[in-house]
Automatic annotation (TrEMBL):
Organism expressing this protein natively: Paenibacillus alvei (Bacillus alvei)
A Pfam family that the UniProt record links to this protein: DUF2577
Highest taxon in the source lineage: Bacteria
Listed InterPro entries: DUF2577
Name of the protein in its database record: DUF2577 domain-containing protein
Higher taxonomy: Bacteria, Bacillati, Bacillota, Bacilli, Bacillales
Length: 99
């Protein structure tokens, strides 16, 4: 193995060891307070979750009437999570639509 190959291998192993972000699927089990299960072995609660705008309810008031533009998370929703380096925080990126 030449020096270039050795450096490439070391760099790839360093990135894999750092594991900066992992993509994970989860299932919403509770909305208030929010709780998401991953692989039915890990339950994430509010303090571990960062919610993106796309999973939060959005309403607009037009002439005194409230309209729901986007529903928030519901129990049973499948979501895409990004595990932030270190595994202490998870970004709830979006809902998954199963067809």
């Amino acid at each position: 193995m030449n020096l270039l190959e050795l450096i490439k291998t070391a760099a790839a192993e360093a990135v894999a060891a750092a594991d900066p972000v992992s993509v994970i699927f989860g299932s919403v089990t509770s909305v208030t307070p929010i709780e998401i299960n991953i692989d039915q072995r890990l339950s994430l609660t509010t303090e571990f979750l960062i919610l993106s705008e796309s999973v939060q309810e959005m309403t607009v008031d037009i002439s005194g009437t409230n309209y729901v533009i986007r529903k928030g998370l519901q129990a049973g929703d499948t979501v895409i999570l990004l595990r932030v380096q270190g595994g202490q925080q998870y970004v709830v990126l979006d809902r998954v639509v199963v067809t």
